[in-house]
Amino acid sequence: MKILVLNAGSSSQKSCLYELGDSLPETAPPPLWEAQIDWSYQAGKAELQVKTVQGQRMEATLTPASRSEMTVQLLQTLWQGTTQVIEQPNEIDLVGHRVVHGGQAYQQSTIITPDVKAAIAQLADFAPIHNPVNLEGIEAIEQILGTVPQVAVFDTAFHAQMPAAATVYPVPYDWLEQGIRRYGFHGISHQYCAYRAAQLLGQDLQNLRLITCHLGNGCSLAAIRQGQSIDTTMGFTPLEGLMMGNRSGSIDPGILIHLLRQGELTVDQIDDRLNRHSGLLGISGVSNDVRQIESAIAAGNARAQLALDVYIHRLRSYIGAMLASLGGLDVLVFTGGVGENAATIRAAACEPFAFLGLHLDFAKNSVHPIDQDIATPDSTVRVLVIHTQEDWTIAGESWQLFQSQYHQR
After folding, report:
1. Assuming Cys at both sites, which of 5, 106, 202, 212 could form a disulfide with 333, CB separation 3.0 to 4.6 Å?
2. Which domains does the chain show, CATH number per domain?
3. What is the pLDDT of residues 191-205, one digit of tens each?
4. Which of 154, 188, 134 shows the shortest CA–CA distance to 6?
């Protein structure tokens, strides 16, 4: 069975093609083909990168069009040109999509129907940067591949069983009845990293207390006990919690009331400031990228130093909050673009927790240690760097759902 995965972001479109047999392998196999379009680097241009399991590669600079047209260009490299891995589009049996917000109605992966599409569209108010582009990816596949079965794998699903104490906001109860509660995000990544951590350590996930740190342009933590998320940092939207690349994370809601009373900014302008012009970029004025922040610090930029200091302070604070929810810690996991690559961030995050017996091996930490334990042998907490495999998790979830709903009929 050939499973295509689409992972749509606000300024990118990632895609992979996997081929699976009658059972799921324990570890992620390399995709037959993977591609990405990113149009965040330079205005009016988009960068297409494609590679195959046989080693063929292609790079091109494209002129951005509609998302559907861009997705067509990306997918055509599956069956055309030097990166061709299938003869024709109808060889694709199933398509899995990352969908950021599933609300209360969708607490597990589901086959996409018109009703599911309508719900994803309605939930765009809760995830305005993500759900609309997730829906556009679904509709693009309908145009390209017709009636091929499609599966929505929700980022919120992994957090759906969090206890009420962790999900309910201390606001008027009728707001909760309107669906205003904490949902959590990055669940696909947190789920994979918990599973992979147990696998790497040779331990039963049910016996582990983990904090998984997904640190990329978007950032969140999850407290995981007995394989279940019991707390997380993102909430009603992906704006809550940690300081991020462009997003503010949690702030005093009184700030928003103050700004609205001042009347100088509209609701949409405040939304734009908090989601696109805050975080590392907002404070530093340099970039949302940790690498560029560190380069600016090396050049003596005080605002870049302040941005990194705030980032680390808030990361440490939220790790402490997750630690309190768990009542102890066995494994600390770093993943995402920053978590996997920024040794200085990992070291700074771990430093205050030496009182737990957590001791980092600085030599291991400094050499790009993917899927490795970077704690010292005597550390009472294992510290893992894991390459998150969201696309593989989406493929596996889609395969399992398809097997249960179609194959056994």
Report:
1. 212
2. 2-154 (3.30.420.40), 204-385 (3.30.420.40)
3. 999 999 999 999 999
4. 134
